[in-house]
Write a structure and sequence with these properties.
This protein is mostly helical and 57 residues long. Helix content is 65%, strand content 0%.
């Protein structure tokens, strides 16, 4: 009976760890999705290469 109780405690700890890991991965996904939704995909960042055009007179 004692081994069974140890097994159940170990199982419960593994379930808690898996739930914590799953929650942290969901938080990372949500944070990344929030960053992507904040940007307007039609407006992309302009490159900062100033040497590609000659100066106007």
């Amino acid at each position: 009976m004692f081994e069974y109780e140890l097994h159940r405690m170990n199982h419960a700890e593994l379930v808690r760890q898996a739930a914590a890991h799953r929650l942290s991965r969901e938080a990372v996904k949500a944070r990344r999705a929030g960053r992507r939704s904040g940007r307007n995909e039609s407006e992309r960042q302009v490159s900062h290469e100033r040497d590609s055009f000659a100066r106007a007179a």
